[in-house]
């Protein structure tokens, strides 16, 4: 059984991503990144992308993760905050601690892709 199945398949992942995304949109540090963007479309892409990561059917047709985040200049603190909200959301949705850990491990793999290296000059 994949993580996707244990999270409740398409409906479960979709519900979790929607709840996560609502929390991210109002987050003090993360929310402002999405001002003036089509958030519904981002949430839809985010759900498709995560379904595939967790072992569900591949439906994601958006840009590569590096390409879609590079211009944001994300730092470790943004990734940390994102993962913190993931943990809180899944805990509130009664996902098992083991599945939460596996989810975070999967998302951690994207850290080097999403976080822009800081030059020693700044
Ligand atoms: C593992 C963590 C993450 C995943 C899986 C993820 C996934 C995605 C996906 C699939 C898209 C849509 C790309 C497209 O439409 O082509 C996207 C866009 C975006 N993400 Fe993330 N993301 C993650 C972390 C973050 C973090 C930490 C931030 C910081 C706030 C962030 C901010 C954004 C923004 C602002 C966009 C829209 C960029 C634009 O269109 O200008 N993401 N993300």
TrEMBL record:
CDD domains: TrHb1_N. InterPro entries: Globin-like_sf, Globin/Proto, Hemoglobin_trunc. Keywords: Heme, Iron, Metal-binding, Transport. Pfam families: Bac_globin. One of its GO terms (molecular function) is heme binding. The keyword Isomerase does not apply. Heme binds at residues 45, 69. It comes from the Bacteria. The keyword Repeat does not apply. This is Hemoglobin. It comes from Microcella alkaliphila. The lineage of its organism: Bacteria, Bacillati, Actinomycetota, Actinomycetes, Micrococcales.
């Amino acid at each position: 059984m994949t993580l996707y199945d244990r999270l409740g398949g398409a409906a479960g992942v979709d519900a979790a991503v929607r709840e996560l995304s609502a929390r991210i949109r109002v987050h003090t540090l993360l929310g402002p990144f999405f001002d003036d963007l089509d958030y519904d479309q981002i949430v839809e892409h985010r759900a498709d992308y995560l379904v595939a990561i967790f072992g569900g059917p591949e439906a994601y047709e958006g840009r590569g993760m590096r390409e879609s985040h590079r211009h944001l200049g994300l730092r470790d603190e943004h990734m940390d905050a994102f993962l913190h909200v993931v943990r809180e959301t899944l805990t509130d949705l009664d996902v098992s601690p083991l599945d939460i850990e596996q989810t975070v491990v999967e998302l951690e793999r994207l850290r080097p892709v999403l976080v822009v290296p800081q030059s020693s000059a700044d």
